[in-house]
Write a structure and sequence with these properties.
Its EC number is 3.4.16.4. About 35% of the residues lie in helices and about 5% in strands. By secondary structure, it is α+β, with helices and mostly antiparallel strands. Among the domains are: about 30 residues; about 140 residues, Muramoyl-pentapeptide Carboxypeptidase, domain 2 (2-Layer Sandwich), CATH 3.30.1380.10.
Length: about 270
């Protein structure tokens, strides 16, 4: 508005000056018509008024994504710890708190309470859905037990074959009490890929994530996880992660947590 006001003042002053010239000319005997007309000046151009500053409005905060939850993948007692050939347990002789398995355990091996509760519910549901449940062939195994088991594989099949099928002590998920080797009822505990073809095995494969379990060593994942396909080895990781992996189509913990592949021992 200040610019507009100053333009109007200049117009008024110019008009007054013109009138004064005419009057003086008339007084001197000349007629107004004979008086030289003043050079017309360009009409003042009105510029668009600069909008007056308004109060700055507070920007509406845009919804922000919640930060991804952080998981403890290092502590031995964490439900989300990652153990593989490149990531040994700390400490190596870790012993978890366990409870007796609610699912029939062939070897009497226990599980961590969280894994046990989820496994028992899954067994009840698969039995209701297919008419056949499963048995626990392997649950918690101690460091010393794993030493004996692994040595037996080495002596029976050689180092290379042992490393493809059995973990060295301190590197086994069974020492966490969160891994369950299961087979169908009536199949015994001669661990076999045949379980994946049974009605029970297929149901578990489709629904295990709903209970917080993932198939830890999927078919074709040996270059990442370091072990051959084991359709019987289910790892409890919690429903949140199991569901997220299912939705994203991620099949290994190494890929999910952005860890290096662990095909061999360091």
């Amino acid at each position: 508005m200040a610019r507009v006001s100053r333009s109007r003042n200049r117009t008024s002053a110019l008009a007054a000056a013109t009138l004064l010239t005419v009057l003086l000319s008339a007084c001197a005997g000349g007629s107004p018509e004979e008086s030289p007309s003043p050079t017309p000046s360009a009409s003042p151009t009105q510029s668009t008024p600069t909008p007056s500053p308004t109060e700055t409005e507070e920007p509406t905060p845009s919804p922000t994504e919640e930060p991804a939850p952080e998981y403890d993948i290092d502590s031995a007692d964490s439900l989300t710890v990652v153990v593989n050939k490149a990531r040994p347990l700390q400490p190596a002789d870790y012993v978890p708190e366990t409870v007796a398995s609610s699912v029939y355990s062939v070897n009497g091996q226990p599980l961590r309470p969280e894994a046990n509760e989820a496994l028992a519910q899954m067994d009840a549901d698969v039995t209701a859905a297919t008419g056949s449940g499963f048995v626990l062939c392997s649950g918690y195994r101690s460091y010393d037990y794993q030493v004996e088991l692994y040595s037996g594989y080495v002596n029976g099949y050689g180092q290379e074959a042992a490393d493809a099928t059995s973990a060295r002590a301190g590197h086994s998920e069974h020492q966490l009490g969160l891994a369950a080797d299961i087979m169908g009822e009536g199949q015994g505990c001669s661990l076999s890929e045949a379980y994946a073809q049974t009605a029970s095995g297929q149901w578990v494969s489709e629904h295990a994530w709903e209970y917080g379990f993932i198939l830890r060593y999927p078919d074709g994942s040996q270059p990442i996880v370091g072990y051959s396909y084991e359709p019987w080895h289910w790892r409890y990781i919690g429903v949140d992660i199991a569901q997220d992996m299912q939705e994203q189509g991620i099949t290994t913990l190494e890929e999910y947590f952005g860890l290096d592949a662990a095909p061999d021992y360091l």
